[in-house]
Design goal:
Length: about 190
């Protein structure tokens, strides 16, 4: 005799506890799964994350990151200035345009996923330069990536678990990034 999945579950439930009404259990089980799915969806909406775009975004970010990582030595030469880069054989305008396109793609992906986070790049890149004390992109880019992950994941965890706030981390990052921007402008004015 061949049983369907529903019949197997019914037989199992009746064997374990004959007092349980099987139809009520099935309803409760579906309700429980629906409740978990709703909680996950609510959390994603609360963080303003577009979950449908995650896989496409991951592929785009990976492709752009590979291209950017291959250009890390070229960026070190570009940091010397336009004339020096051209004299050293870099197609300055071509690399500059490619870099701007890569930045535009990365900004559009992050904005599509979590919304605008204005000062985050400024904050992370300057902290990476300060911490690494090097202008080589082979060191500063991985440091910036690790700092970004630490700020986003760690910041959201601290806000939710320790401080019990229901605020997205982007609000705090905007505040700290704004302070960092003011600090950098003040430091540049003080040097002049």
């Amino acid at each position: 005799m061949i049983f369907s999945k529903k019949q197997k579950v019914k037989v199992f439930i009746e064997a374990v506890n004959p007092k349980i009404e099987v139809s009520n259990y099935m309803h409760f089980s579906n309700y429980r799964i629906t409740k978990i799915e709703k909680a996950q969806t609510l959390k994603a909406k609360q963080l303003n994350i577009q979950t449908e775009l995650l896989l496409v975004s991951a592929a785009v970010v990976l492709a752009v990151s590979v291209i950017g990582w291959r250009l890390r030595r070229t960026y070190d030469v570009l940091a010397l200035g336009r004339d020096a880069a051209i004299n050293l054989g870099i197609a300055y305008r071509k690399v500059l345009m490619l870099t701007l396109i890569l930045i535009a793609v990365l900004v559009s992906v992050s904005t599509a996923l979590v919304g605008p986070v204005t000062f985050f790049g400024l904050l992370v890149s300057n902290l990476a330069y300060i911490i690494m004390k090097s202008d080589k992109h082979a060191y500063t880019v991985p440091a910036a990536i690790l700092l970004a992950i630490a700020f986003l994941v760690g910041g959201q965890s601290i806000l939710e678990r320790v401080l019990q706030f229901n605020t997205p981390v982007s609000v705090v990052i905007e505040f700290i990034g704004g302070l960092m921007f003011i600090f950098l402008v003040a430091r540049k004015v003080a040097k002049q």
